[in-house]
Design brief:
This protein is an alpha+beta fold. Helices cover 37% and strands 18% of the residues. The chain is built from eleven helices and ten strands. It has helices at 9-29, 33-44, 49-55, 62-101, 120-134, 148-151, 198-207, 248-263, 316-321, 338-346, 359-362, and strands spanning 138-139, 145-147, 170-172, 191-193, 212-221, 233-243, 269-276, 279-288, 305-314, 330-337. The strands form two sheets. A seven-stranded mixed beta sheet has the order 1-5-6-10-9-8-7, with helices on both faces. A three-stranded antiparallel beta sheet has the order 2-4-3. Helix 1 (9-29) runs antiparallel to helix 2. The longest helix has 40 residues, at 62-101. The relative contact order is 0.10.
């Protein structure tokens, strides 16, 4: 409610002066923006002293109303100006304080950050390549999307071959034709994500005359569900030798030399009969357990041996498919999983750990070749050397 009319002009002007001084004192008593905001209702709110006087001007005598209005307007303007000045002053002080606290020194050296390093699979691949290059092999690569001919048919796996069920294949829909070709001069065949790196061997044999001494590392794909020992994407390395007079004994000696060079002189290898459609005869090769050195432990199921991969003499049909005369040239091939080798060598019991992008896990591998303490027994390798 507006104040009752004043008894006279002098009394009204005195009340205006008191309201002005009271408001200015409240502004002067604020120490920061928060305190200034707290007193704003007493300055500009409905119950502010000057506001109440303004609402009662209608009851002032007409002769005095003009002067009273001018004095009241000046008082309110003084309060508004003092409030604005105080707010600017406090805001400026807070800004300077914040800038001082957040000051950026462009000359200050940044804190050191840890250096990145190669993934464990890449480290293992490069180490394997170094060993095989030292043994006289070259390194060959090929496309990850392959035609059915390179991935299966050229490897003695025609369309109706029952051994195709050994590979859970992912097929690609690229339209009617593909520029990859089928390798046989006919219509383009269906395209798959390669299930092994053997197609690289086919590409080498169809483009490079023998003798051939090469290894083929790379990423391969299977329609597998991820678990402790399987991933839909993993890595293999395969080796191929084609020359005159190559025998099974040459293959055994090569694998023994690789085993000694990669794992150390205390590790040896052995061969066991097996079957692969692209080699004849075929074998699986084991190595002495790298953790117990053949004494027997839970990792090797107390046998002293760990299965590493598959191998065999290149099937004559494969050589013929690549335009190589099997009567003149012979060869052998071998292969194993790079991921599984890394698991075994570093004591990792779950393949998925290497692909979760947890820097705490992947950052602990700095290229060390030390053998870890015995982990829980890893699953046995698949028939194709995974």
């Amino acid at each position: 409610m507006p104040d009752p009319p004043a008894d006279g002009l002098d009394d009204l002007l005195a009340r205006i002066a008191d309201g002005r001084e009271s408001a200015l004192a409240a502004i002067a008593g604020a120490a920061d923006l928060a305190q200034l905001s707290a007193v704003e209702p007493t300055l500009f709110g409905r119950d502010a002293a000057l506001g109440r006087i303004k609402r009662g001007l209608g009851k002032v005598a007409t002769a005095d109303r003009g002067k009273a209005g001018r004095v009241l307007g000046a008082a309110q303007q003084a309060v508004r100006q003092a409030h604005a000045d105080a707010r600017d002053r406090f805001a400026g002080a807070e800004r300077r304080t914040r800038l001082a606290a957040e000051r950026l020194d462009l000359t200050e050296a940044l804190p050191a950050r840890g250096r990145g390093r190669l993934h464990l699979v890449t480290q293992t691949t490069e180490r394997l390549e170094d060993v095989f290059v030292g043994m006289g092999f070259t390194v060959s690569e090929g496309p990850q999307a392959e035609t059915d001919w390179y991935n299966f048919e050229a490897l003695n796996l025609p369309a109706a071959h029952p051994a195709r069920s050994m590979w859970d294949t992912l097929y690609l829909d690229l339209g009617e034709r593909t520029e990859l070709g089928d390798g046989a001069g006919g219509e383009a065949s269906s395209v798959v994500l390669r299930t092994h790196t053997s197609p690289v061997q086919i590409r080498v044999m169809t483009t490079q005359p023998p003798p051939v001494y090469t290894v083929c590392p790379g990423r391969v794909f299977r329609r597998d569900t991820a678990d402790a020992s399987h991933m839909p994407v993993f890595h293999q390395i395969e080796g191929l030798v084609v020359d005159r007079g190559i025998s099974f004994a040459d293959m055994a000696g090569t694998l023994e030399e690789f085993t000694s060079a990669y794992f150390g002189g205390a590790t040896s290898s052995r061969l066991r009969p097996s079957y692969f459609p692209f080699t004849e005869p075929s074998a699986e090769f084991d190595i002495t357990c790298v953790l117990c050195e053949g004494a027997g432990c839970r990792t090797c199921a107390r046998t002293g041996w760990i299965e590493l991969g598959g191998c065999g003499m290149v099937h004559p049909n494969v050589l013929s498919n690549c335009g190589i005369d099997p009567e003149e040239w012979t060869g052998f091939a071998f292969g194993f999983g790079i991921d599984r080798l890394a698991l075994m060598r570093h004591g990792i019991d779950d393949l998925r750990d290497m692909y979760t992008n947890d820097v705490r896990f992947v950052g602990q591998f700095r290229g060390s070749t030390a053998v870890a303490a015995p982990p829980p027994p890893p699953p046995a390798a698949a028939e194709d050397g995974r």
